Amino acid sequence: MKTALLLSGGMDSVSIAYWKRPNYAITIDYGQKPAAGELRAAEAVCRSLDIEHVLIQADISKLGSGDLAGSEPSGHAPASEWWPYRNQFLITLAAMKCHNLTASTLMVGALKTDGFHTDGSEAFITQMNNLVAMQEGDLSIEAPAIGYTASELVRAAGVPIEILAWSHSCHLTEYACGFCRGCRKHYETMEDVFGTAY
After folding, report:
1. Is the pLDDT of residue 116 over 80?
2. In whole angstroms, how far apart are CA 22 and each of 75, 83, 103, 163?
3. 47 closest CA partner among 64, 77, 25, 71
């Protein structure tokens, strides 16, 4: 049975790529500001791990809000990087691609700490899996790290620093700004696990 991973290029999905070694890694350029950096990271990791990399381009930048879209956050935003229905959209596109790839499982990089955003919660992943299961194709949606924090995932995955160093977590640009919520999480996790921010 073939597996696929929704690989953003961030440290969580990179850790899962190393840990679970899916047959395919699917990266989606949806018009987000850091897309070039995410794609660069995803390609490097897939080359290093010998995982087939699949790129989907679907520009919805005009529908976004907040840091990732380079605009003011929505009034509904729980945090500055919130983009309406983003994870629902990304999972749906990746699930569609799984049919072409004959993959029966799509993994996503949600953590227990992502429940701050509804679409990062365990309940949301369960509902997305139920929705996909109602339809043809026998595809399941899984979040193998849903019980972990970022540091716990890195340790459980055993991902070495030379692989994790490829990851790109910035919400604002293709190069790490060092100040956004994504960069701060990245640096704090690297320091917690490896004793260094790099």
Report:
1. no
2. 37, 27, 10, 16
3. 25
